[in-house]
Amino acid sequence: MKRRAFLSKLWMVGIGFVAAAGIWTSWDLLRPGESKGFGGKVRAFPPETVTPTNVIEVAAARAYVTDVNDDVRALSWKCPHLGCRVSFCDSSGQFKCPCHGSVFNRAGDLLSGPSPRGMDGYPVEVGPDGMLYIDTGTTIEGTSPG
């Protein structure tokens, strides 16, 4: 075999190895998997942690979890008006938007302000491990006022 032919084959084998390594390392990025974190199911805490008197902030889900009439709800931080982060006021027991003054009750219903609807929510379920899971991939639109 001549030197030129040997080097040509060596380059082809090298390029083949680089291509195979690229496909091998990209496979994890290309294959679909279960989403975790925001945009998927977020594992929160045991359901007995939520009581009718408290509101729990879950940063990974960007939501508040509250119990309203024995119904556990996850409410989005984002105000439906312009997307500001709504905060919970312990003294009044209401959610308030600091940007434009919308006020929501513990159930996420609009009480006053320019928001077009109540706070959006996420489905909540108890997983097989007994923990509360918030599905941030599915949004439940807040109720219209009135």
Please describe the structure with a list of short key phrases separated by commas or semicolons.
single chain; 146 residues; alpha+beta; four-stranded antiparallel sheet; 1 helix; 11 strands; 27% strand
Describe the structure.
With 146 residues, this protein is α+β, with helices and mostly antiparallel strands. 19% of the residues lie in helices and 27% in strands. The chain has one helix and eleven strands, in the order αβββββββββββ. Strands 2-3-4-9 form a four-stranded antiparallel β-sheet, with no helix packed on it. Strands 5-6-7-8 form a four-stranded antiparallel β-sheet, with no helix packed on it. A three-stranded antiparallel β-sheet has the order 1-11-10, with no helix packed on it. β10 and β11 form a beta hairpin. The N and C termini lie far apart (87 Å). The model has no long low-confidence stretch (mean pLDDT 88).
Biggest sheet details: 4 strands, antiparallel
Number of strands: 11
> Reading side by side through the largest sheet, how are the strands ordered?
2-3-4-9
Structural class: alpha+beta
Produce a short descriptive summary.
With 146 residues, this protein is α+β, with helices and mostly antiparallel strands. 19% of the residues lie in helices and 27% in strands. Strands 2-3-4-9 form a four-stranded antiparallel beta sheet, with no helix packed on it.
